[in-house]
Amino acid sequence: MRPIPLCCLAMLMTIAAGGAHAQAHQAKPAAANAANGDWAMPARDYAGTRFSPLAQITAVNATSLHPVWTFSTGVLAGHEGQPLVVGDTMYVVTPWPNVLYAFDLSKEGYPLRWKYRPDVSANAVGVSCCDTVNRGAFYADGKIIYNLLDGHTVAVDARTGHELWKTKIADVASGETVTMAPLVVKDRVIVGASGGEYGIYGWIKGLDLKTGTIVWTGHNIGPDADMLVRPGTFKAPYDTGADLGLHSWAGETWRIGGAPVWGWLSYDPDLDLVYYGTGNAAPYNAEQRAGDNKWTASVLARHPGDGTLVWAYQFTPHDNWDYDATGAMVLADLTVAGKSTRALVHFDKNGFAYTLDRATGKLLLAEPFVKVNWAKSIDLQSGRPVIVPEKQTGASKGTVKDICPCLEGGAAPTSPPAYSPRTRLFYTSTNNLCMDFGATRAAYLKGTMFQGAISPYSIGPGGYGGTFMAWDAATGKKVWENKEPFPNWSGALVTAGDVAFYGTLDGWFKSVDARTGKVLSKFKVGSGVVGNPMTYRGPDGKQYVAVYAGIGGDWLLLAGDVRSDDPTDVRAPADYVKDIARHTSQGGMIWIFGL
Amino acid sequence: MNLKSIRRMRAPLPLALLVLSFSACTQREGSAANPASPAAQPAVVYAAHVAAGGEPPPGATLRNPHEGDAAIARNGALLFTTMNCDGCHGADAAGAVGPNLGDQRWRYGGADSEVFMSIYYGRPKGMPAYGGVLGADGAWRLVTYLRSLTVPANLPTQSWDQT
Hints:
The structure holds 2 protein chains of 2 kinds.
Chain A: H1 7-16, H2 22-27, E1 51-52, E2 66-72, E3 84-86, E4 89-93, E5 100-104, E6 112-116, E7 138-140, E8 143-148, E9 152-157, E10 163-168, E11 183-185, E12 188-192, E13 203-208, E14 214-219, H3 224-227, H4 244-247, E15 266-268, E16 273-277, E17 298-302, E18 309-314, E19 330-336, E20 339-347, E21 352-357, E22 363-368, E23 375-378, E24 385-387, E25 399-403, E26 418-420, E27 425-431, E28 433-439, E29 453-454, E30 457-459, E31 466-472, E32 477-484, E33 493-495, E34 499-503, E35 508-513, E36 519-524, E37 534-537, E38 543-549, H5 554-558, E39 589-594
Parallel strand pairs in A: 1-33
Antiparallel strand pairs in A: 2-39, 3-4, 4-5, 5-6, 7-8, 8-9, 9-10, 11-12, 12-13, 13-14, 15-16, 16-17, 17-18, 19-20, 20-21, 21-22, 23-24, 25-28, 26-27, 27-31, 28-29, 28-30, 31-32, 33-34, 34-35, 35-36, 37-38, 38-39
Chain B: H1 3-9, H2 15-27, H3 70-82, H4 85-89, H5 112-121, H6 131-148
Helix pairs in contact in B: 2-6, 3-6, 5-6
């Protein structure tokens, strides 16, 4: 994304519709539209598909993919997110301190056009539950827009690197930090905050694209007035009544009830709805917050213009297990049970893959995609899980053994899936992890962790850590899977060449046949991959694939001693992934692969 | 470095008095010590720091009033969980978001007084200032707990060789 002129917004809208009208892409030759070679928003399109119409790299020639360029970001924390490419410029946001790099792809060696180094408070580092990650930027209206860990959104001139506006959106002193990538729709910049582990009062905001002014704030929990539930506009598919976000909580517990927004946003231009998932209820000890705790661990649909809440569906009522629902909501038109459906597909931390009607939030199907034992199934009539009572947790229950999946999720929300309208399959990384869960009473102390649980993990049945799999969301069935020794934490990419891409925690970057899962190429990228591959057409007309290496996020905390940058912090290896540190250490790198 | 020897390096003037006056002035007002009063000079000696000209600045060490008290250490362990220290530093202070505090390696100095200052006033990379809710005595209890942790054997080396 870069000095693309006014037409960009219109172009983005076209790309945006890509998921919903994906067949149009298929009909068009890849080279017909210059924008086809760009990757201007986190998931490439508003539908969140991470599908590219580029088809130079195919299942036949991908065997010769090799690295053509690398760059050290100079930052060691977990490199989640993905680069953007607009025209002949690649944009990269690093983890804290959130440096923005602009690389000139038209020159040999891709030298920097500029870099932007904002002043980001180090105090935010201490209230970042899960490493100081950043999930990327958005290109719109000639601006690169992204969030700073210390609770700011910035807009930077994509051509010059000069700051255009900077808005304080979150309060670090209350445990709010910002790690998510914004979504820009028309003249709104939609942003949210992390802090489910600090007892925040979770929200999402709409900023004015031109000025950065906060236009609306909608809370995810609490009274209707705070949630922007307006008369006659809100209809939950399985609930009725006013103030659901208030009455589903004991007393005033909603005020510190969590429901952060740190994952991926998508948008349907026809319905004019933005979709996003909310994180866990706080604290982890569910006995401190009786009730369903709406709308934590839920998907919410809002109008971007004024934030009006239109519908909400809760995946995990009364979350007992830290099952955030912040994973991507991918929009695709599917034929479910013989009916053509405007669907929303979501792989939840709780181990179920959901297919919903995205106009209403009605559940169409929900099937486990990994081992699940906290619920027997999801009841399609009520939309509620059929709970297994002995897997309910709480401080009075002591340590509850062997709950699957573990709280890292059947799929990590940080690892967004991809959808190909050609194969009609979804591609995602998964974890094969279970946990014991010992809840304890947690005391709310503003600005500190409000958690109350110890939850040691173990590898699930079969002894492998995770998979990369293909899923048919129209039937709720797995089509193929590649087992990986370690939990799998990269996002997915799929292309019109029918090649899918992912990285592994032990530092392999792989291309696979999207129809069979057969590995076509692999390369050791120097550090574990927790970022998301993307693809673009370079100024030379060739297709490239880019990905970050740089283990981190939860894995900095959980994988044992993969860090080498701090002599005052030496840790024992994690007992469930004993030798991960044998294969990787920290270190942020951008890799570009070509034929 | 040997923490005990650091504490012995200086034989500061009225030690007990210092601890008292420091607690008294910080507990309520949280104000900085008055540099005019010799008893209230910056009350930590960073003995491990490099002193320009080889000339350490004048100051006095703080002494942990609960040093070596096992009962206080157990009480400190309780504080460590109830005040959410374990949320960042992990169970048994073995490290999570925040660094391992049981490896006897320290970002901001490992003398009792330095650990006390980290807890009481916080540190710039995210350690919250706990003095306001804990008071000086609570901070000392935590110091006592951290001192009671056993350093794991063979800490610096992790080997995968099957010999």
